[in-house]
Structures are given as C-alpha cells and as structure tokens.
Amino acid sequence: MSSDDSFLLIGQLAQTANTTKDTVRHYDDLGLLKSRKRQAGSRLYTEFHPECVDRIALIKSAQAIGFTLTEIQNSLNDYYDGQLDLDEQLDIVKQKLAQILEQQATINLMVEMLTQRITLLTRMQEDESYVPSIEDCKNNSSKLPYHR
Fold first, then answer.
1. Is pTM beyond 0.85 here?
2. 124, exposed or middle or buried, with CB in 10 Å at 0-12, 13-18, 19+?
3. What's the pLDDT tens digit per position in 3-28?
4. Inter-axis angle of helices 51-64 and 69-80, to 10 degrees?
5. Cβ neighbours of residue 132 under 8 Å, at least 6 residues apart?
C-alpha cells in the first residue's frame, strides 16, 4: 500500500462505515481489512485503506444472510483479489442456502414440538384429573439433528 493521505484512522473508518471501533479492530485482527501501521512520534497508529468502508459493508451484508466471520474470512480476500470466480461464489451461496434451509426445518420441528407441549400442559392445567399417557408425552426429538 502506498503512503498517501486517503488512509483512514480507526475512528474515521468506524464512523464512515457506521460501525464501532471494536468491530473494526476485530475485523482487522481477523485479517478482513487492509491496514498498515504508521509511527507518529512515540505512538503507533493503524491506518485503513479506504476500500475498508466497502469491505465492512460487504462483511455485514454477508453476516446478515447467515455467513460466519470464519466463512467470510475464508473467501473475502480472494473475492477482492479477483481469485473467486462466479462459479465458486455460486457454490458458496448454494451451500449456505442448503445449510440455512436445514436449520429452518429444524426450527419448524422445534416449533411443532413446543406447540404440542403447550397443548398438553394446557390440557393438564385445565383438567387436573387428566393424566397424559406415555404416547402423549412422546415427541419428535429423534428427528432433530443433535439426536442422531
């Protein structure tokens, strides 16, 4: 990176990118941002490339659709360096969609199970003489991924 005045200090970057300094530091520690160190007297400052504003927006956008920082870290630099072609991007997004759909199915099953449990408990509350059978108490927990 060349030395010029367009580089941003952490506060400028955080404000421009509408985030916090802690977020910028965290992303920088993970290698998600382009930065350089600059000595000013006895202090060492980190300066950030102006491209980091767009990088932060892209990171937050990817997080909003379910990508983890680790997943983003694995491909962000390749994306910016032009090393991640459209086929690879499409594969990554399709894999994420499959993962999210699986999570959605699990959540739907959990909602169904909780609704059944509420119905059972409400019946027990309304009719103190009602004793549920073993079948009434069974649920579909064996269908959940963590019970396999």
1. no
2. middle
3. 456 899 999 999 999 999 999 999 99
4. 140
5. 120, 123, 124
